[in-house]
Structures are given as structure tokens and as C-alpha cells.
Amino acid sequence: MRTLAGRTSGFTLLELIVTSALIVIISGMAVPLMMNATDAIKLSQATRQVERELQTARLKAVSANQPIRVRFDCPATGQYRMVELVGTPTVPASADSAANRCALASYPYPAADSNVLTRPNHDGPLRTIDPSVSFSGATTIEFWPDGSAHTNSAGTDPWPAIAGTGTMVTLVRKSITKSILVNGVGKIQIQ
Fold it and tell me: How many Å apart are CA 136 and CA 72, to the nearest integer?
């Protein structure tokens, strides 16, 4: 096709090769950035999911007037569950071990009945984080009816309130980490 200036319109082979090379180079730089963004998004989603469960456990402890625990990597890696303490903080029942409390076969969700004499009545469902995300340094956290948070750091009953700056629940995906800070008065925040 001829233009007014007498030249043929279109692209030369060299122009097409240079343009294609630029597209490949830019795409090659964008893929790792997209992968990092995907990792960060999945980790953030898992962190928010765990933070909501901690908030729910604290609210349930206050509203039900019962101590509620959140157990991590229970019964398997990447799983966690909100469970009502069987017994009292001072004298927990022997049935309240980590090995059996997360088992849905032993403690189904929802509870078989809601009779206050046959506890637990406030166990939550078994939850699972994204398989590519894992817990690192997470310890069971117990919320009391006054909203305070406790961990079994000393191995004694009742569990002491979380001291100082708090305790962290850390989640990891590849080399990226996110943490949830829980302090003794029950404040829960993503770091």
C-alpha cells in the first residue's frame, strides 16, 4: 500500500523483533513480582483468618463466661481450633489435653447438646490455613471470661496472663512472615 509520501506502510522485521524482545523482557521481570504478590496475599489471608478466630475466641469467652482456648497445629500441621476449657483454669480436666481436644470424633462441632452440665458446648469448627502457609512459634492461647489472655509458659495451672509486650502467633509462607500480637489484656492485632 502506498501512502501520500510514497512509502509503504507497515513494520519492518527488525521493529517486530525489537518489540517482541521488549515484551519478553518486561514479562520476565513481572512474573517474579506477581509470584511475590501472590505469596503475600495468601499469607495475609491466612493471617486475617487466624486473627478473626482469636477475636472470636475472646468474644466467646466473655459472652459464654467460660475459658476458651485456641490451639495451633492441632490435630495436624496447619490446623487450629477454638475449644472450650473443660474444667476450670485452676483445675483443668484431664480430658482437656491437646491430643484429643482438636479431634472432631471426640469433640464434634457443633456440640452434641447444649446442656451446661455436659461441657464443652462452645468448641468451634476445625480450621485449616492454606497448605503453603505454616505456623511458626504459635502457642495455645487461653482467653478468660474477663477478656484477658493467658499462655502456659510456666507449666502451672492456672495459666499466667501473657506478660510484657505479649506473645506472637507467627505465620510463614516461603521467606515471608506475618505475626499476630496478643497481649495480657486480650488485645489482638496483626503486626
Answer: 10
Q: Is the peptide bond before 89 cis (omega within 30 degrees of 0)?
A: no
pTM: predicted TM-score of the whole model, two decimal places: 0.81
Q: How many domains does the chain have?
A: 1
Cα–Cα distances (Å) from 52 to 12, 45, 131, 173, in that order, read 59, 11, 19, 19
pLDDT tens-digit readout, 90-112:
888 877 776 788 888 888 888 88
Q: Is residue 77 part of a domain?
A: yes
The torsion angles phi and psi of 180, rounded to 5 degrees, stand at: -115, 125
In a domain, 104, yes or no: yes
Report yes or no on 162 lying in a domain. yes
Cα–Cα distances (Å) from 119 to 8, 100, 140, in that order, read 86, 15, 20
Cα–Cα distance for residue pair 191/82, rounded to 1 Å: 22
- Check which CATH number belongs to the domain holding 135 and give it: 3.55.40.10
**Domain span at 25:** 16-190
Predicted confidence (pLDDT) per residue in 11-26, tens digit: 888 888 989 988 888 8
